[in-house]
Amino acid sequence: MAKKTRHATVRLNQRQKELFIDVVKYILGVVAAGAVLAIVLTAPNLIQILKPLLKHEKQRYSEEDFKKVISKIYKDRLVEIEEKGGKQYLKITNKGRSKFIEYNIDTISIQKQKWDGKWRIVIFDIPEKFRIARDVLRNKLDQIGFLKIQKSVWVCPYECENEISFIAATYQIERYVNYIVAEKIDSNEFLKKRFNL
């Protein structure tokens, strides 16, 4: 009977853990929408790409720190290798997607602006197999200032298409979520009062 291969854990010190979060947010952010990251997958190349991003930390992190962090990203299976055109590329895994959400979801917010007289409506019909994504979307809509007006129908007066797209793309539920901009809703006056417009 074949033995299961065990993958050694990469342990990071506190400084490296901080770098790990920055690198994960960057790498997974590029591929969170499901696209393949168009860079050749080699540690030296990846380090060179990441260093300019974190150049303000150049004195703080060593080459060894970067190598260890990248090794942990591979070992933790946050990304996987995909062959395309004879080259190797990075692609986010489900585990990586979850980690990316963990590091970024709390930073999403809607900037209040001068109201342009239009309503932003989010409608979704997400299958039960994506229940976790559905719950996160619902909770996040409430948290960032949307008002639920019907089951799975939420409204907000401020532009937020990018924020909604980010959540939907990260959870791969774009096909089940619709973002609508409307000039008038039947409950127009009620909503204006609720949003203090």
List the helices and strands and how they pair.
Blueprint: H1 14-31, H2 43-53, H3 63-75, E1 79-84, E2 87-92, H4 94-104, E3 119-124, H5 131-143, E4 147-150, E5 153-156, H6 161-170, E6 177-182, H7 188-194
Antiparallel strand pairs: 1-2, 3-5, 3-6, 4-5
What does this structure look like?
This protein has 197 residues and is an alpha+beta fold. The protein has two domains: 14-105, Orthogonal Bundle (Arc Repressor Mutant, subunit A), CATH 1.10.10; 110-194, Alpha-Beta Plaits (2-Layer Sandwich). 42% of the residues lie in helices and 16% in strands. The protein has helices at 14-31, 43-53, 63-75, 94-104, 131-143, 161-170, 188-194, and strands at 79-84, 87-92, 119-124, 147-150, 153-156, 177-182. A four-stranded antiparallel beta sheet has the order 4-5-3-6, covered by helices on one side. Strand 1 (79-84) and strand 2 (87-92) form a beta hairpin. The N and C termini lie far apart (69 Å).
- Give helix % range: 40-55%
Q: What radius of gyration results from the CA coordinates?
A: 21 Å
Q: What summary fits the major beta sheet?
A: 4 strands, antiparallel
How far is the N terminus from the C terminus?
A: 69 Å
Can you identify the CATH class of the largest domain?
Mainly Alpha
Global shape: elongated
Q: How many β strands by DSSP?
A: 6
- State the helix count: 7
Level-2 CATH architecture of the largest domain = Orthogonal Bundle
Name the structural class.
Answer: alpha+beta
**Largest sheet strand order:** 4-5-3-6
Average pLDDT number: 76
